[in-house]
Amino acid sequence: MFIAFEGGDGAGKTTQIELLRGRLIEAGYDVVVTREPGGTQLGTSIREVLLHGDHVAPRAEALLFAADRAHHIATVVRPALARGAIVLQDRYLDSSVAYQGAGRELDPAEIKRLSLWATEDLLPDLTVLLDVTPEVGRDRRGEVHDRLEAEQDDFHARVREHYLQLAAADPGRYLVVDASLPAQEIAAIVAERVDRS
To answer: Would the annotation count 8 as a binding residue?
Structure first.
């Protein structure tokens, strides 16, 4: 099973991945936790350029994310799924569609096509969207750590709105959870959905 966790910066993706990971390991499952960008050695280098380097033109940014994704899926995710593992991933192609598409105001459909080409059409079995407002995300983030976190609230509002549009268009693949709920309550909602999947 392939489960992606999506949402704006400060939504609590890392916390929820760790809570679900612990629950699944306790139940005896083989679990792989990974992230984009940065789930491979190549991805770590790309992550540094994308998040901590100088300005990157929007189209170049989208292509770098897609390059990381292609390598990551081929070398980490598909092999894990092939051996029967559950993959929990922090960000996937919906992040590119929302951040580079809506946030950077590129064509979201083009960004999606690029990511699907890069991954040979691999979609998660479940996408958990932790919905957070830009204001709450900013308060949770505290100090800015990267170029995307440093964007203004209008950028993060466009990202959030596009995430919600993606979820509304494909409700069978998405679980949308209010990220302002207590962490354990969110974890229970996610666990219940995973149990049904």
So the answer is: yes
Instruction: Answer whether 20's CB lies under 8 Å from 88's CB.
Output: yes
Is 10 assigned to a binding site?
Answer: yes
pTM, entire model? 0.90
| 13 annotated as ligand-binding | yes
- For residue 154, the tally of other CB atoms under 10 A from its CB is 10
* C-alpha span between 44 and 105 (Å, rounded): 26
Percent of the chain with pLDDT over 70: 91
Domain at 178, CATH number? 3.40.50.300
Alpha carbons 176 and 183: distance in angstroms, whole number: 14
Closest to 147 in 3D by CA, of 72, 67, 55, 80? 55
**Is 107 part of any known ligand binding site?**
no
Residue 87, helix vs strand vs coil: strand
For residue 53, say whether it is annotated as part of any ligand binding site: no
Range of the domain at 64: 2-196
Q: Do 6 and 93 contact (CB within 8 A), yes or no?
A: no
Choice among 9-18, 28-37, 100-109 with the minimum mean pLDDT: 100-109
Structural domain count, the chain: 1
**What is the per-residue pLDDT for 189?**
98
